[in-house]
Amino acid sequence: MSRPDWIVLVLTLLAIIAYGLYKSRTTKDLDGYFLGNRTLPWYIVLMSIMGTQASAVTFLSAPGQAYTDGMRFVQYYFGLPLAMVVLCITFVPVFHRLKVYTAYEFLENRFDLKTRALTSFLFLLQRGLSTGISIAAPSIILSSLLGWDITWTNIFMGGLLIIYTVTGGAKAVAYTQQLQLIVIFAGMFMAGYMVVHRLPAHVGLLDALHIGGQAGKMNIITTGLREGTAAGGRGGFDWNDRYNLLSGIIGGFFLALSYFGTDQSQVGRYLTARSMGESRLGLLMNGLVKVPMQFLILLLGVLVFSFYQFNKEPVFFNKSQITLLEHSRYKDSLVLVNREYDAAETMKIKERNWLSANEGKKGQAIYVEAEQRLHQAEGLKAWARGVIKRWLNDKQVGGDNNDTNYIFLRFVTDFLPRGLIGLLIAVIFLASWGSIAATLNSLSSCTIVDFHRRFTKKELTPYKEYKLSRMYTLFWGVFCVGVAQLAYNIGNSLIEAVNLLGSLFYGVILGIFLVAFYRKKIGGTAVFVSAVIIEAFVILLNVLNNKGIVHLSFLWFNVVGAVGVVVLSELIGLVAPQKK
Amino acid sequence: MNEDEPEDKSPLFPRWSYWYALVIGFLLVIIAFFYFLTNYFA
Lengths: 580, 42
What we know:
The structure holds 2 protein chains of 2 kinds. Helix content of chain A is about 75%, strand content about 0%. Chain A has helices at about 5-20, 30-35, 40-55, 55-70, 80-100, 105-110, 115-145, 150-160, 160-195, 205-215, 245-260, 265-270, 275-305, 320-325, 330-355, 365-395, 405-415, 420-455, 460-485, 495-520, 525-545, 555-575. Chain A is globular. Chain A starts with a helix and ends in a 5-residue tail after the last helix. By secondary structure, chain B is an all-alpha fold. Chain B has one domain. The radius of gyration of chain B is 16 Å and the shape is rod-shaped. The interface between A and B is medium-sized, with 31 and 24 residues.
């Protein structure tokens, strides 16, 4: 990175920390520290909800996802607006009426202590580990591309935010998230503008989208039906297909309902609102803006794809893996493959330029011939990439053959002007900070409210509880950075690990809450036993999935967990009716 | 607390159910728009 980039990066990060400290003043008790005295307006709640959900990976991974797999990932968010409506009708009024600090407090009120403790424990386990992994994922990408030391990157990624999170609690988290989102959107908008600006003069935005469309990247809506279904052949719905309309609406609904309704990192955000109405408005606005926002981030990936049709695309976006091959037994073959790839790239750029400039000749023999040469070049490129991926998969090389998460940042570092690179690296840090800060605050609130306060007999003053909460926030911050250090060896599959971890636990937690809200006759023991059995079943399902015995996308684990707990509790309730 | 309490009054619309309909309606419109884009750029 150049000096202007470093200046932009350091100044942006320092400004956020200073702003967080400036906004740190709260009353020195749990209400002030964890809920900002319940005084925040809906738009701060909205920004806080969005800032908590959008992690660094959202901005790194989503454009790469669109680049490789197309826009269909946006369907993953279709269930979210529906979940917002259900939350506003059911969850929000109860949480506000009971004036809870954590979502799990309500479970003791409705069931018993053991159900509250189990649910809060599942949350702490899942969130503590996945936050550590969430720190490691962008750190690995930044350290690979920019050659930074991984330990220091982890400390900066997960450690600096501790300063304002420990000091200012939920209020500092919410106000910094507001500023962070402004910087993030400004950075992403500028990146989008630069992609279009750097396209050849004769290629406009619509042309770029058509190029993406021709390559199958504008597959925004997909049905998940196997080929041949319509023709009456052997088709049917592909349950292993992750992103389609049905899995997005149903699986996405359960995931969003679990995440926003039962994950304290989100519940803690809308409990900071000054009234129930402000909480509702923040959530409903999130339901309105989330899908378009995600669409635009993915669209950036399609534009980057079109950009690389006119510019040299690296054979593999993760530079460090190419360096690995250069020092392996494949180093001589790599030179030959690179030569073939470069020739194909030159041919691709030449033909693509000609085709774009001569749209009027479509259908003529000369146009068809140019298209054929383009396909030939694409075929050669795919072959070269395939060879490189195979080499990286070789156990002796020990490489990582998935470069999806490196695509956007590689484009940024290779093609964007000085200063803007620093801003976009800052975007990655800020997205990470916003999400992690909210999580640390929620981990601390559950530890003190659901465990420390509940299980120790010693009465503490509000000030001592506040001091203790700060200590717990610090503890969880250090814990998560420690997990990030240990998670380094998992490699690029870290992002999948975060999604999978969530899906393993969210469904069961949601099931407990659904029984609590909708099945008034079912008691604590029935739901507790069901939750333990279904959690074991979901984990078994994952093991069977990994072994290839079952073929089920992880999104469906949420549905299995939630429905499983509801149905089993009902059955146990019928066999052994209980009073609360 | 219920919908009649002053602090929970729905802004812009007389009732919260209008907001819920707006969010669901917007989702349907946006899915239809995405369907159109998928076919248009295919």
